[in-house]
From TrEMBL:
Residues 167-228 form the ANTAR domain. InterPro entries: ANTAR (IPR005561), CheY-like_superfamily (IPR011006), GAF (IPR003018), GAF-like_dom_sf (IPR029016), GAF_ANTAR (IPR012074), WH-like_DNA-bd_sf (IPR036388). It comes from the Bacteria. Keywords: Kinase, Transcription, Transcription regulation, Transferase. This is GAF and ANTAR domain-containing protein. It comes from Rhodococcus indonesiensis.
Amino acid sequence: MAYRHEEFVAALSKFAQRLLTPYEVDAALDAVVRKVTSVLELTGAGVTLHVDGRLRFVTAAGEQIEAMERCQERFDAGPCAHAFNHGETVAVADVRGRDDLWPEFAAEARRLGIAAVAGVPMQLGEVKVGALDLYCREPREWADDELAAAQVFADMATGYIVNSDKLRQQEQLSAQLQTALDTRVVVEQAKGITAQARGVTPAAAFELIRSYARRHQAPVRAVAQAIVEVGLRI
């Protein structure tokens, strides 16, 4: 079964554009799950991520797929765990008869009417993030081009997560730089006020501010703000 190539290309273009704008990771992963389901004509798909030392279900398309994902999370066994642990795609045409692979997962598949499954690793270099799982109700011989397309979706999902972390880091850095700048401004103002009030140089005024902060176990910025905003004199 060939995948929908034109829809696949359009999805990649949209996903790439999303990376350049603010986005919520959970919404982005939901979009990946929905689109891979459509492009590969699946029953559904799911994403499991490695969080706090274990694999945890994050999102899935449909209640049956969510149940399959939670089964993997509970027993730490299935295509997701295999893809994550081995860093390679695993594809099974009909998992219902594969108790030799994952007995609890196979039993859940029989209960829910799921046949074909595949797990695709989500990782960046040596950093393992999680796995993208594919599900079909009917037995399916997974074609190489289908699994290759699924890997691209998994890589895109990984990109969303990594890029989001970098954006948060940049936002934190920007906030820290702004805080440092604001502190510098208020300290300079406090130095000027203290220097004028005490008839000393700005350098001597800063030492007075710092000594006061140490004696009262307060941050220099807090003392400076008190001098500027509430009229503290030292």
